[in-house]
Amino acid sequence: MPLKGKKEEVSMVDISTPIEFRQVEGKSLFLDPRKEYQLTEEKLQVRYDPLTGRTGHFVRLGAVKPQRLPIESYSNPEVKGFCPFCSDLRYRATPKFPEYIFPDGRLSKGEALLIPNLYPYDVYSAITIMTTEHVVPLERLNEKVLLDSFSIGVAFLKRIKSIDPSLPYHLTDWNYMPPSGGGLVHPHQQCFATQFPGNQVTDEMRCSKAFYKKHGVNYWKELVRIEQHRDKRYIGGTDSSHWLASFVSLGVLGEIIGIFPDVYSIDDFNEAHISELVSGIRRIFSYCVGKNIFSFNTSLFFGPENQDFFSAHFRIIPRTFLNTRDHASDLCFYQALHQEPVCVVMPEVLCKEVKAYFIGKN
Ligand SMILES: [Zn+2]
Q1: By three-state DSSP, how is residue 36 classified?
Q2: How far apart are CA 19 and CA 219, in angstroms?
Q3: Fewer beta carbons below 10 Å: N end or C end of the chain?
Q4: Nearest 5°: CA angle at 14, between 236 and 239?
C-alpha cells in the first residue's frame, strides 16, 4: 500500500513553530492464518526527525518485549571470568593517565574511579568504573553512584578541554548490561573528547546551525517550547532541563531525551545540572524496573564553545534481546545496514507511561 503523508494534527489553539513534525501512515495487507486467512491490515508509520530529516519506522511487532536477564548468575565465577574493574584489580590491572593530565594518574569520587581506556576509541578515551560491585541491578544504581560517576566524567572532560581546547566535542556514553554492547557487566561509563563525535551529533550540529541561521532561534529551545505546549511527548522538567519522548526513536523500545537548553559546551555543565540529569535518569530507571527493562544505552552530548545553537542533551534507549532462546538482539539489518531506526513503542504512549514517574519527588 502506498504511504500517505500528513502532518501531525495541530489543535486550533496551537502556536506556530518552524519545527515540522512530519509523519506518513501506511498499512500492509495479508491473509492472516490466525484469523482463518481473512484479509487483515497491519498499520505502520514512518516519521521524519524534525531536525535532521532522517526517517524512522514505527511498527507493531508483538514479539518484541523486554526479556528477563539472569543477572544473579553474572557473579558466578564460571560466568564472570576476569574483571579488571573488580576488587583491587581496579588499581593494579588498569592504566593510569600521564602526569600532565592527572598527577595522581586517576580520578576518584566515592566508589567511582576514572581511568584511561586500555583500548581507546579516540584521542582522549576514559572509563569510569561506577561501582565496587561487579553486578549492580538498576534498582541499586543509586543517586550517589550516579552523581559521583557523572561528576568525575564531567571533571575529566573539563580537564581535557583545558589542556587540549582544539577538540570541540565532549561525550559521555554508557552501555549497561547485555545486549547493549558493553564488554563487561561491571557498571562503567565512557568519556570522550574528540573532533569526530559520530554521525548523529555531526548531523545534529549541521542541522542545528542551519535551523538557527534560517529561523533565528535555537532548535533545542524551540523544541522544548513547542513540545511543552503540545503536551504529547513532554514528560517533565525544570527551568534548566527538560525530558521528552523523541518524535523519532533511535531505540526499538523507544527513546527519551533530556535537553539542557542553556548548556552548550562542557564548561557550562555544573553540579546543579548533574543533579538534574541524575534525577531524570533515576525516574527513567523506575519506569524501566516497572517494565522489566534490564539494559540500555545512553549518551550525553556537548557541543563546541562559542556557539548558542546546539544545546547539550542526553539520550537513553532501552535495549533487549528479542528472545533469550538464541539471544537474538534488537539490532538488525535495519539499524545496522540501513541506518534506519525501528521502534515498536509510540513516543506518545511512552511519554504517558514515563510521565507518571516524573510526578512528585524522587
Ligand atoms: Zn567486576
Answers
A1: coil
A2: 8
A3: N
A4: 30
pTM of the entire predicted model: 0.94
Residue with cell 561506577: 130
Residue 112 Cα to ligand 1 midpoint, Å, equals 13
356 touches 336 (CB < 8 A): no
- Which tens digits make up the pLDDT trace of 289-334? 999 999 999 999 999 999 999 999 999 999 999 888 888 889 999 9
Residue 304 exposed, middle or buried by CB count within 10 Å (0-12, 13-18, 19+): middle
94 Cα: distance to centroid of ligand 1 (angstroms):
12
Nearest CA to 149 among 176, 131, 166, 137? Answer: 131
| Residues 6 or more apart in contact with residue 277 via CB below 8 angstroms | 150, 241, 258, 260, 300, 314
CA of 88 to the centre of ligand 1 (A): 10
* CA of 71 relative to ligand 1 center, distance in Å: 13
Tell me the three-class secondary structure of 253-267, residue by residue.
CCCEEEEECCCCCHH
- Of 332, 272, 264, residue with least CA distance to 301: 264
| Cis amide prior to 179 (ω within 30 degrees) | yes
**Cα(86) to centroid of ligand 1, in Å?**
4
